[in-house]
Amino acid sequence: MALDADILLDRRRLKKSIFRWRVVAVIAVLAVIVVGLSGTGVKDSVLGGLGPRIVEVTVEGVITEDPYLLDALRAIEEDSDVVGVIVHINSPGGTMVGGETLFEALRRIGETRPIVAEMGTVAASGGYMAAIAADHIIARRGTITGSIGVIFQSMNFNGTLEKLGVEPLTVKSGPLKAAPNPFEPVDDVAKSAMQGLISDMFDVFVEMVATRRDMSVDTVTTLADGRVYTGQQAVANGLIDEIGGRREALRWLEEQAGVTTDAQVVPLEIEYPEDDLMSAVLEGNLGKVLSSEGLKLDGLLAVWQPE
Fold it and tell me: What is the pTM of this model?
């Protein structure tokens, strides 16, 4: 009986020890995650210790709300060593809110230092919206830009469903809820409501262009029929300032904006989380990842149980 009691006591001590070590391991993991989340996602080489510098911000692909990019731009805004910014844009556009938030973040930087936009192959729609945040816009002759406008697209499968003998059922609180709906015809009231939505966004875009390019709203409205322009046409219409590339961008910063020639160009490098613990935290899958790593959170408190 004494031997059995000793064995039972040893088992309980072992389970307590395992419990303590697992708790320590989880705390250590969470501490690393917290430290990671407290950063901006910007590599240290961009943030400090290099003296006066020009930061190159690259905007590529479809523009949406990017919290990592916005955090990085906030870090630039607060970095007194940044004496100028080059925004290289190669984007066909994106969401209205994505373009608007990027524009506003760049303008906050532009309140204290010069910004020049350097257009690549395409800088249209939301890409152009990002460009007008700059004080000077440069493009190649063959750059595709403009496309000042807003679009909403949907599809209607009502005819196809009728041919298949399928009748969709929709119950909603009001006639304009979830309109347009791809499973029911769109009436004139719904079309009018959607047109009002698009027109309001369009007016915002036009006002932004008119203000930043020092043009009248009427002039911008004439140019903003949705068409795209080459860089050469954009210069002629006052949508951009100059034909050129990186050399012209640096020359403008030095000669027109007074940026020191000693400033070096440093690309902004953002560390996006990969498919690891950090992304698991951001996506709400921490328990699943820790479990796969041998740290099962949902069963942690059940590790040690009294016999």
Answer: 0.73
173 is known as an active-site residue: no
Catalytic residue among 16, 45, 172, 177: 177
The single-letter DSSP state of residue 270 is: B
Query: Is 15 a known active-site residue?
Result: no
The token pair that represents 269 in the structure block:
């490098």
Tokens 């906030």, residue located = 74
Q: Tokens representing 4?
A: 């059995």
- Residue 237 corresponds to which amino acid? N
State the Cα–Cα distance between residues 239 and 168, nearest whole angstrom.
47
Each residue of 198-246: pLDDT tens digit?
A: 899 999 999 999 999 999 999 999 999 999 999 999 999 999 999 999 9
Q: Is the pLDDT of residue 85 over 90?
A: yes
